[in-house]
Design goal:
It is a single chain. This protein is α/β, with parallel strands linked by helices. It has two domains: 277 residues, Type I PLP-dependent aspartate aminotransferase-like (Major domain) (Aspartate Aminotransferase, domain 2, 3-Layer(aba) Sandwich), CATH 3.40.640; 94 residues, Alpha-Beta Complex (Aspartate Aminotransferase, domain 1), CATH 3.90.1150. It is 41% helix and 17% strand. The strands form three sheets. It has a seven-stranded mixed β-sheet with strand order 4-10-9-8-7-5-6, with helices on both faces. The chain has a three-stranded antiparallel β-sheet with strand order 1-2-3, with no helix packed on it. Strand 5, helix 6 and strand 6 form a beta-alpha-beta unit. Helix 4 runs parallel beside helix 12. The longest helix has 17 residues. The structure holds pyridoxal-5'-phosphate. Pyridoxal-5'-phosphate binds next to helix 5. The site of pyridoxal-5'-phosphate has 14 residues, from helix 5.
Amino acid sequence: MRAFDDFDGEINRLKTLGRLRSLTPRRAEGIYLYTDHGERLCNFSSNDYLGFASRHCDPDRQGAGASALVSGWTELHQSLADDLAGFEQMEASCLFPSGYAACSGTVATLAREGDIIFSDALNHASLIDGCRLSRATCVVYPHRDMPALRALLGEQRRRYRNAWLVTDGVFSMDGHVAPLVQICDLAEEFDASVIVDEAHATGVLGDRGAGVAELLGVKHRVDVIIGTLSKALGAHGGFVASNSQVVRYLINRCRSLIYSTALPPVVVDAARASLNRIATTAADRQRVKSLARSVRAKLEQVVSVHEMDVPIIPVIVGADNQATCLAEKLRKHGFFVPAIRPPTVPEGTARLRISLSALHTDQMIEDLIRCMQKVL
Ligand SMILES: *Cc1c(COP(=O)(O)O)cnc(C)c1O
């Protein structure tokens, strides 16, 4: 694909200049740094000015002290990145300080001047900010509207060098699933690359919990997967999985990765433990899916019943104050169901947003439904 050939060109240019960088695992211990060949170096690279990070007796309270490219990248970071690449069935992966940093940085970096981005109207703010930061032209297509996307591609694609189709996998405020099969078909037809943000789907959807791309059988047709370690994985941070050219390019060019402190090792360790557990949590995935089905069935009068398995269930009420008033009533009965208002959602579509967890018991669900039926 042409976009990736461009990255090769840029990587070769950096190599010629002697400026190609890669992530090298290092381990900090006090004021010393140990390389993966066992070299001991006195560390003059950290931002740990007062020694707080290094002097914690408890390594579980240590920060990374520096960005990943300087000295914040450890064997643990590399192992998690390798595990994530395997999980996502991609060649390589890289960790980011947050999902927000991964989304905004990746879109802004990969889509360059002379390129065009097609972005779903309901994409998450982090992808929208990536579009805004990018030097590419950005076109917003109506939510999940494939004929409209097709028409826009037909009109505009040929005037640009590379085209990027950018979408949430699961839309966070609606619980909708992106039509990834059709998006991948259009990408093929119009020579475009697909970037999917799997924040709400990683660990939740698909047989192995590898997201919407797995659920819809397009794992090998999506070019770039972005995910978060902070939702179903219960830790913190973001990641990008793709081919090795893209990952190398991001490591060398992505500002939200290069210019921010790396994830603390303890967080990386927690995320890695969660990821290892994902394979054995099919029962929890099944549980949250069946809760989603049952809540949708019971609230069918007020919720969309299309995306049965998605554990995000919005009850759209319209006016801001109506949503907050309902949330307040539920709160009085002991339920916290947040009211989501503009600008997070479009004007006039304020809503209650129910997020389900495998920890909810049948009784809790029953009580919530009874209470909602009373107040709605
Ligand atoms: C939560 C979320 C993010 C941001 O992830 P963080 O790890 O919380 O920064 C990105 N995209 C979507 C769709 C999200 O829901």
